[in-house]
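We read letters as residues; the fold follows as tokens. A sample entry reads:
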Amino acid sequence: MTSSEREYMQSRQRSLQRKQKLIALIGTIGFGGSMLFTLVPLFKSGLQQQNQPEIIEVESAEVQLKAQEKGYQSVLQREPENLTALEALVNVRLQLNNTKGAIEPLEKLVKLSPEREDYQALLEQLTAI
């Protein structure tokens, strides 16, 4: 082989190597981009789903408490001196942070069960607020 042929072969080899490196780089960038487009929405939806159950649980707990409150009120319409329903209504209203609403059924409990000191103490605490 002559030196010009050798130089030609070396320059051709370098050119092929550059093209191979360029194609490999383009392939790597394409693969990485497609992975990003696939993984980013998965992580984003996963984070959104993690936050939503907490909100739903809080809302559903409040909805359940309000439904319980309505149920106890309907029992008390039929049986105004039902001690169990009165006590449960007081507890539900306290869980809903409705201290003013809890005072009325608690006053009835105190009148119906004057021996219960815990009712009297709770009534004193709520009226002091």
In short: The radius of gyration is 37 Å. Residues 72 and 89 are 6 Å apart (CA to CA).
